[in-house]
Amino acid sequence: MKGVIRTILLIALICIFSIQFTMSMVIFTDLDNHWGKEHVNWAANTMELIDGFNDGTFRPDDIMTRIDFILALNTLLVKKNIYQDVGLHFGKGINISYTDVDRYHWAYGELAILATYISEYGNADIEIKEIFTEDTFNPNKPINRHEVLLLSRAVTTPPIEDHIISFKDVDANIPNYNLIIESVNNGILRGYSDGTLRLDKNITRAEAATVLRRVATDVNYLADKFLVYEDIKSRNIGIELPIFQQIDEHESQSQLHQRFIDAITSIQYSAFVGHIPYHERHLYDMQPIETLWGLKNQNYYNVIGNNYYLIKYDKDLVMERKKELVKEGLQHLKLNVNSSFDGLISFLSIAAELLPMEETMNAAEATFRQSDNSKTKLETGLFIMSQYMANNEMDKGLNIHRSLLEYEFADDIKAQIIRNYGYLLYSLKGADEAIRILKDLKDEMDLDFNELNPNAIEFTFNGLMKQILIQSKN
To answer: CATH second-level architecture of 244-473?
Structure first.
């Protein structure tokens, strides 16, 4: 009976959440088969930038007004934390000199914050008066493609690809021509098949939604810090309870391996709690250190793991014996360079404390060169990198990162390797060479291109190159 009640409650909760989602998700009656349906739903429902009408329509082919576009753009920049990141808020900003939008006009604050961001924080050399050039702003006037291209470029990043484009109806001598072309290269708006750009053409509400979505993708590259060197973290690096050598070809030692797991689990539990409660003692190994020494005498294959926990937790060990255990572990590593070691960086860190750094580095570097195992390659590489960066040997660090990029890792780890590689490239070789190398590397990886939703690797490449471009122009 209780199971039936739980099932009924679960169904009821699902229905409630489904109703709430449906109520928040506006289904517009005039979007069926419209080319902009996906973009409109993103702008109206996902981001809530543009409202529909009371009759349930969106009217995607109606024109977009200047003020409606600016309201939507401001909302987008607020939701992406762009204004907050630079300490900008409504009510703070430069004076706006339009005769029809004075300080008491309801739209003044919207214009002021956007104008201030463009003038003081934007990555394009332009002011809002160069976009809306009349003495009056005319809030309800339709916004055209020329204004949208300039306005979008004023809040986005420089394009990675600097294609030389010419349009039959655009004079290269017009003001801010380069920014118009940069905005096209950023994919904000595209030319027509007849070779025209039609700058004077008003944009529709559906087109505005599409532009805003493209702007949103681009400003994500402003919200992250790419040109910063960071130590690489993962679930299996620097974990609290590393297992070290995995049980693969050593199935004959499965019982010994289980005793090892039980022993280190007991050590960890006791260290965390302080003691093992009496009523739980049957669940744990009450003499884990003795167990580890016993495993050692039985030639348990996981030498590095066993020695690591003995060095760390056997309080009776003298320094010379600890050094012997470390050297034994490094010798085991030398003989098993292609094995997978989970937590090897922890063992290398202890080795560096007990032995001369040169001895530990030689072992780590030899393993890095010889190993074809991605996990062992990564963990030895990270240890080596920590020493290179501490000694400001960035050129050596660059080579380590480039070698690691030949191996497959989880996307978050690979993305951080790429970030560090890009940082080192820019620091050592400058903007132009760094971007050239990153472009070539990106092409080599043959990534699946998704303009509006790039994966972690593509996002990292794009972000690196865009922020290098920004830094080099500042």
So the answer is: Alpha Horseshoe (1.25)
Query: Rounded to the nearest 10 degrees, how much is the dihedral formed by the CA atoms of 237, 338, 301, 314?
Result: -40
CA 463 – CA 178 distance, rounded (Å): 21
User: Which residues face 341 on adjacent strands?
Assistant: 245
The helix, strand and coil proportions of the chain, stated in percent and rounded to the nearest 5, come to 60, 5, 40
Residues 6+ apart with CB under 8 A from 20: none
CA distance 189 to 366: 52
Which pTM value belongs to this model? 0.83
Instruction: Give the whole-number percent of the chain exceeding pLDDT 70.
Output: 92
Q: The tokens of 341 are what?
A: 């070691």
CA distances from 228 to 144, 167, 234, 386 (A): 39, 39, 18, 15
245 and 340 Cβ atoms separated by less than 8 Å: yes
Integer Cα distance of 373 and 367 in angstroms: 10
- Give the span between the Cα atoms of 116 and 94, in whole angstroms: 6
Per the CB < 8 A criterion, the answer to whether 358 and 387 are in contact is no
Q: In which residue are the tokens 């790039």 written?
A: 454
Q: Give 386-418 pLDDT, tens digit per residue.
A: 999 999 999 999 999 999 999 999 898 999 999
Q: Is 59 exposed, middle or buried (0-12, 13-18, 19+ CB in 10 A)?
A: middle
Q: How many CB atoms lie within 10 A of CB 231?
A: 12
Q: If we measure between CA atoms, which residue out of 412, 400, 411 comes closest to residue 371?
A: 400
Sequence spans of domains, the chain: 35-223, 244-473
Name the β-bridge partners of 22: none
| Alpha-carbon span 307 to 261, nearest angstrom | 14
